[in-house]
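User: My advisor, Dr. K., asked me to get a structural model of this assembly before our group meeting. I'm new to this, so sorry if the format is off. These are the inputs:
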Amino acid sequence: MSALPVAPELVEPVSEWGRLDPRMIIVRPLNELLGLLPALFALVFLGNVETWRVVASVGAVVFVVSYGLFSWLTTKYRITDNRVELHKGVVFRQKRSIPRDRIRTVDLTAKLGHRLFGLSAVRVGTGQQERGAGEGALVLDAVTSAEADRLRQVLLHRAQTSVVQERDDGTTIAALDNRWYRYAPLTLSGLLSIGVVVGFGMNLAHEVNLRFSEVGILRAVFGWLSTAPLTTIIPVVAGLIIVLSVIASLVGYLLQNHGYRLSRHANGTVHVSRGLLTTRSVSIEEKRLRGVSLYEPILLRSGGGARLSAVTTGLTKGSNSSLLLPPAPRSEADRVAAEVLGDSPITASLTAHPVRARSRRLTRAIVPTVALTGILLILTLTAGWPEWLWVLAAVLVPAFVLVGLDRYRNLGHALTDRYLVARSGSLTRRTVALQRSGIIGWKLRRTLFQRRAGVFTLTAITAAGSGGYRVLDVGEGAGVELADLAVPGLLGQFLER
Amino acid sequence: MSETEWRLRAPANLVSKRAVLQWTLQAAIFWVIVVVGQLIAVVLADDPPGWLRVTLVVSIVVGVVHALVMPQWRYRVHRWETTGDAVFTRSGWITQEWRLAPISRIQTVDTERGPLQQLLKLSTVTVTTASAQGPVKIEGLDADVAARVVDTLAATTQATPGDAT
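Assistant: The format is fine. Below is the predicted structure of the whole assembly, which you can bring to the meeting.
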């Protein structure tokens, strides 16, 4: 590693065992306690104060604090010329070691507890696909933010990059625009968080044996619900839910995307940082970036918005760490995609899929809903089920037909110089641009119905992202031709006229 | 698009004829468990519900048809081929699947043998790539053929440069 250039701040890592920052003895329990706070509060103050409650709470606190101490004592890491090593574990000892040339991403996260002490957790990701949690990745939780920044630079820095800047802030590709907040209410995330809060509250109330009838406000609410006419209740409740979910989604957007900035750095990485309380900072090696996904959930799409994710190796699945652009105007998403990829496959005009694919979408929309309506109707007539059930199901039929038609309208694929583009979905429309050189195989799948319709589903296999990206219901000839053109010389040898 | 469309041809090689026996046995074992379970309930229960007899008859009919039709159908679908630069397989019966993996992207090649397969001297060749979509599998190969395939693939994979992602 002598070829590694040394800059003032960028000290060549010593291959001695280092410990995590000692402040973690406090921070880890603090983070845990912040999460436990509502439960502890409920345990102590709600319901009757019994001895066992106090004992249990104190016990929990003592356990969490001593766990933090032992975790710190047992965790050490080092960076040698070739590997990053981490030893940890109080009860189960764990030794992880990752070759440095396998490192693809370095992801910094600082929760509220970390922020108070200026610390960051560093997650080092490799290109390896994760079968179990944490496999193929290594987390240093936590080191000082300065050390975290230094680690990122050292670990993502390759010998072949010649010059290192003193402190590389990169060139900004996109930054948060306050007008984007108008897309927050269109994401349903608010509704979801209300559901979570209500669920958690109910659970908690159940745990501490809270009787709803004993709380004055709740009793009044229930009293009103049972006496007021439905025509009043429905609009009031719906209005309340809408207002609450709008507020919750705005707060959520603020928490997650405050200070969002996407930048490109000279060491060949793109960098996303965002978050108000918990800050996230993700570096993705451009060489490992295999494409982007553009998500347009139906509400967001109706407002002309979209969000953008990276298709890359080495990031945890489902943890939102691959986000490139939070909900923002579609034009902004197009621009960011073009800037990041250096090409604009997302806006390429797509080839529509055969009309048989539309019949399939319609069949799928109509058959289950009509069957459901029929079953509910029979149950109403014979078993005395309420009538509104089948009426509701009947109303669903045309709604599903509209969704089915939209699903067909959205189906499409395209091939640009470097990218394979596929679009599908209606409630969440997804457009994926996948680098053709990142395709490591094909899967062609055909059900009996697809066979009769003369279509199949083509899946481009890749090491990045979800591992495979589908071109749904493509015509037989067109699909085979697409696969042959996208990766020349692979499928061609198995074709005949 | 041209008048005559390109079509994907079937991979060259059939799997072992004994694979039919393996699939039949697998289906038979499954359906015997299902049927015997219901039979015990019908015989032992004091007052077995009427629908249990219906599901029992249905299970027997479906089971027999499945165990007779599925293996033959599969035998006609399951095919495989390896060339100098790709592994190509076809599998399934009602739903069919073609898989194609370039040799340069292969990470490991293994064989797997379940108890039934050991009895019938069959092997499954598993070809893994860096993707989360799962490996390419060639089921129901004669054990000797499978060993040869693994050797060939291992040799060609070694000779082909690339980091497999």
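One thing worth pointing out at the meeting: Chain B has two domains: 13-76, 78-159.

User: Perfect, thanks a lot.
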